[in-house]
Amino acid sequence: MDQVTLTPELEQFATEAVAAGRYRDVGAVVQAGVELLRQHDAARAALLESVLAAQAEGDRDGYLTADEVAARVRATIARRSPTPT
Predict the structure, then answer these.
(1) Around Cβ 4, how many Cβ atoms within 10 Å?
(2) Which of 15, 31, 55, 82 is the most exposed place for a label (fewest CB within 10 A)?
(3) What tens digit of pLDDT does each residue of 33-85 get?
């Protein structure tokens, strides 16, 4: 692995995290940060894939207006609401 250089602020943060017992050493802090970045990138890719799939579905099946969506929501709520007795 390449040598990692941290800014003084990040170095202090990492050192404090180790001193507090949250990590065994600064390398573990860096590893945790890289893992969070990997998770963030994976979530971002999944979101983009979802948006593109929704766009393709809309292009294929058509889009609803805001009024149409509101009407569908009201109808669903009305169907699920108990009938007054």
Answers:
(1) 13
(2) 82
(3) 999 999 999 999 999 999 999 999 999 999 999 999 999 999 999 999 887 66
Question: 10 Å Cβ neighbour count for 17?
Answer: 16
What residues contact 29, with CB distance under 8 A and at least 6 apart? 13, 14, 17, 18, 23
- For the chain, the structural domain boundaries read 8-80
Residue 74: its pLDDT value, please?
A: 96
User: Residue 2's CB: how many other CB atoms inside 10 A?
Assistant: 4
Q: What is the distance of C-alpha 28 from the center of its chain?
A: 23
Q: Report residue 80 CA to chain centroid gap.
A: 31
Q: How far apart are CA 15 and CA 11, in angstroms?
A: 6
13-34 average pLDDT score: 97
Segment 7-28 mean pLDDT: 97
